[in-house]
């Protein structure tokens, strides 16, 4: 393909992908204002399990509304069926112009073959929706439903569409995640068992009275990070299981909506908490500070800083809750290729921006405080073990790399892998003539075809990169602090246990720089 063609393909790709993904949370229902819906439908060898079904309501039957169901990349075969981008714009604003282009005199869709192409009747359905219509999809792919209600006599109607995949009711994006969650949960449980067993091997005792022999960070990694991760993901998997079996694409169950809300909320709150935990760590919590002022190994965390950061964290949580509530109440008129500027949608966008701003702020603060804490550690008075300070600095530096740099690397690698799949998919689509009056049709069909072929290869590398980074973080941080950083581990059975009796006496007031450090 020429560079000009690639450029246009990229533009259409961004449009279509954003349109398809925007519809994943919305019921698949058509109305007089929204006359198109597209969704991926996955089929296996059992042809009865994958289909598109139109549930004809009384008003739809009475008005005899024409409809069309087809595999979107096959749009190149038709001479008069408009592409998705054109259809969504004209249906909402200029039905007269749209209908003159695509309908016959008797109000049916024009399905004549384009020059050089043929139309296969088995690959689409078209006709008047005067009963429930069930169209078994011949191949996996993105299928679109177009309708053309009478524009001379506008009327309200509701046409539910069921996009049924061979695996169930979830959309393909959610199913890909759902299908992998069982492996992630199993891996997390095994990791928890292994790390917990490692902790027990430090002879903390059955009554756990000697848990102070384990570094604060290592305990936090297992009990405050890994444990809630398992709980959140088990709940996510359970909600997806219920939705896959009991909630069709056009349905909205109150119970499942509530469960879905708490699933989203749990994910968001957990992400916020991990950002908070990383910031506290960067400020020295578990490294040189602790919340208990009586600890012989740590000095008391600066209380003023703790209050400010905790207040910022709770404000972050409030914004997260508002965002999840806004998603729950967003209008269902947000369909493929159509976006209405509703108050809920505007509010959701504003709150989403605030959530992103908080996430970015916690990241930047973590980087800033990392360097401040590193200077503070370097200024500590010599301990009984001359190498202990160096070990703490080394462990802190390694942890910083794992927490703040490694995700950038894994994200980049995931992007490269996804890009390779996308390029290969684009290379496997048909070649169409260039610089013709059907150039936009070819571009739109090529884009969706490439999207279909690469969807799994794009989604899975991205989600698995996040999970693999998480597990790498858990394992790395745990062993960095429980094994390498001997300065913060007190083995009471050792002949020469390391003590930091002078740590609580090392006084640094809030906001002081390293020049003002005093002993």
Automatic annotation (TrEMBL):
UniProt protein name: Uncharacterized protein
Signal peptide as annotated in the record: 1-22
Presence of the UniProt keyword Lyase in the record: no
Chain segments annotated as transmembrane: 181-200, 221-242, 269-290, 311-330, 350-371, 400-423, 462-482
Record keywords: Membrane, Signal, Transmembrane, Transmembrane helix
Naturally occurring in which organism (per UniProt): Candida theae
């Amino acid at each position: 393909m020429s560079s000009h063609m690639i450029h246009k393909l990229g533009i259409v790709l961004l449009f279509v992908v954003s349109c398809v993904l925007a519809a994943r949370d919305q019921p698949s229902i058509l109305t007089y204002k929204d006359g198109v819906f597209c969704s991926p439908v996955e089929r296996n060898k059992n042809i009865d399990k994958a289909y598109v079904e139109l549930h004809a309501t009384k008003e739809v039957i009475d008005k005899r509304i024409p409809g069309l169901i087809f595999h979107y990349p096959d749009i190149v075969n038709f001479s008069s069926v408009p592409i998705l981008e054109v259809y969504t714009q004209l249906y909402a604003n200029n039905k007269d112009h749209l209908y003159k282009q695509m309908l016959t005199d008797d109000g049916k869709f024009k399905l004549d073959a384009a020059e050089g192409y043929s139309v296969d009747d088995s690959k689409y359905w078209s006709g008047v929706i005067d009963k429930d219509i069930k169209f078994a999809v011949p191949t996996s792919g993105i299928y679109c439903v177009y309708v053309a209600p009478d524009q001379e006599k506008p009327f309200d109607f509701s046409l539910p569409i069921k996009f049924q995949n061979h695996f169930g009711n979830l959309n393909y994006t959610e199913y890909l995640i759902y299908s992998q969650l069982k492996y992630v949960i199993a891996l997390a449980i095994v990791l928890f068992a292994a790390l917990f067993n490692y902790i027990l091997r430090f002879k903390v005792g059955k009554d756990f009275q000697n848990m102070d022999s384990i570094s604060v960070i290592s305990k936090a990694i297992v009990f405050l990070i890994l444990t809630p991760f398992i709980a959140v993901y088990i709940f996510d998997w359970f909600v997806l299981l219920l939705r896959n079996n009991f909630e069709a694409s056009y349905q909205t169950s109150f119970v499942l909506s509530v469960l879905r809300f708490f699933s989203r909320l749990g994910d968001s709150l957990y992400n916020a908490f991990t950002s908070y935990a990383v910031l506290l760590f960067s400020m020295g919590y578990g490294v040189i500070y602790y919340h208990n002022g009586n600890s012989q190994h740590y000095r008391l965390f600066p209380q003023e800083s703790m209050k400010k950061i905790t207040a910022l964290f709770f404000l972050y949580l409030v914004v997260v809750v508002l965002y999840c509530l806004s998603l729950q109440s967003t209008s269902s008129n947000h369909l493929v290729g159509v976006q209405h500027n509703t108050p809920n949608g505007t509010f959701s966008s504003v709150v989403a921006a605030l959530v992103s701003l908080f996430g970015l702020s916690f990241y930047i603060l973590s980087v800033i405080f990392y360097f401040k804490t590193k200077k503070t550690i370097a200024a500590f008075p010599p301990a009984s073990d001359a190498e202990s300070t160096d070990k703490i600095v080394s462990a802190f530096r390694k942890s910083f790399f794992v927490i703040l740099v490694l995700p950038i690397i894994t994200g980049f690698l995931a992007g490269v892998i996804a890009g390779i799949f996308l390029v290969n998919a684009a290379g496997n689509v048909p070649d169409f003539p260039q610089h013709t009056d059907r150039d936009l049709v070819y571009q739109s069909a090529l884009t969706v075809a490439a999207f279909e072929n690469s969807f799994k290869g794009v989604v899975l590398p991205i989600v698995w990169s996040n999970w693999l980074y998480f597990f790498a973080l858990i394992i790395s941080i745990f062993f960095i602090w429980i094994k390498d950083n001997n300065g913060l581990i007190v083995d009471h059975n050792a002949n020469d246990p390391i003590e930091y009796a002078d740590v609580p006496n090392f006084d640094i007031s809030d906001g002081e720089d390293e020049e003002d450090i005093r002993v």
